[in-house]
Amino acid sequence: GQSLEQPSEVTAVEGAIVQINCTYQTSGFYGLSWYQQHDGGAPTFLSYNALDGLEETGRFSSFLSRSDSYGYLLLQELQMKDSASYFCAVREYRGYTDKLIFGTGTRLQVFP
Amino acid sequence: NAGVMQNPRHLVRRRGQEARLRCSPMKGHSHVYWYRQLPEEGLKFMVYLQKENIIDESGMPKERFSAEFPKEGPSILRIQQVVRGDSAAYFCASSKKRADQNTEAFFGQGTRLTVV
User: Fold this and answer.
1) Which of A41, A97, A103 lies closest to B48 in CB terms?
2) For residue A76, which of A3, A19, A36, A30 has the smallest C-alpha distance?
3) What does the angle CA B22 – CA A29 – CA A27 come to, to the nearest 5 degrees?
4) What are phi and psi of A76, to 5 degrees?
5) Among A37, B12, B39, B110, which is most buried by a count of CB atoms within 10 Å?
6) CA torsion, points A31, B57, A86, B21, in degrees to nearest 10?
7) CB contact under 8 A, A45 and B100
8) B104 in contact with A, Cβ within 8 Å
9) Residues whose CB is less than 8 angstroms from the CB of residue B54 and which lie 6 or more positions away in sequence, other chains included
């Protein structure tokens, strides 16, 4: 089966840096994605890593190590609006099917 | 280019009624996915469809749930004889290409189903 593990909650203050880890067990791995979801809102795409290493997009960076089945999302210069849930997701492709399997989610609370 | 459109945004049904949830993918997207999210939980895969075909329904409950994506019109998730445990947010996502072609999935705003 597939499983992705994330911490359930992380707290930080404005301006700080926070790292949200994700470990996964899956087959047919085709990359690790990160999504942000505000309360009552839709998941929105943040980043995607298919290869090992760091991808940077503005204040957000994402890292992947396929040999360790591990990735993380790094959020810098935190702002209040970053308070949301963050999900890692594995794109599972097995030749006939193609779907995102989501982690349990990490609730980030940013305090002033 | 409009995003993924879902309707209704909120749906209230009494136990035993039917719920029909609609999803129009983004223009040019032929892959549609349905996910269910219970309060304070992650998104659980339900079904993956392409036009007129169900590709993977491994996440769908065996009874009362069905999905379709006709040649014309939106994708429909249908829940018959709803029970309180069906109360959740149902999200639809669409993408343009398959996973091996490295593309993201875009989500709609969801339909929040409440069974009373």
Assistant:
1) A97
2) A19
3) 95
4) -110, 160
5) B110
6) 140
7) no
8) yes
9) B47, B48, B67, B68, B69
Query: How far apart are the C-alpha atoms of A72 and A65, rounded to whole Å?
Result: 9
Write phi, then psi, for B61 (nearest 5 degrees). Answer: -55, 150
Bridge partners, residue B76, by sequence: B22, B68
Write out chain A residues lying below 8 Å of B58, CB-based. Answer: 97
Instruction: Decide if A51 touches B, using CB distance below 8 A.
Output: no
Residue A59 has pLDDT above 90, yes or no: yes
Write the DSSP string, A22-78: EEEE-SSEEEEEEEEE-TTS--EEEEEESSSEEEEETTEEEEEETTTTEEEEEE-S-
Q: Are B18 and B73 in contact (CB under 8 A)?
A: no
The secondary structure of B72-86 as a DSSP string is SS-EEEEE-S--GGG
Lowest mean pLDDT among A17-21, B18-22, B26-30, B90-94: B26-30
B25 vs A97: CA distance, rounded Å: 18
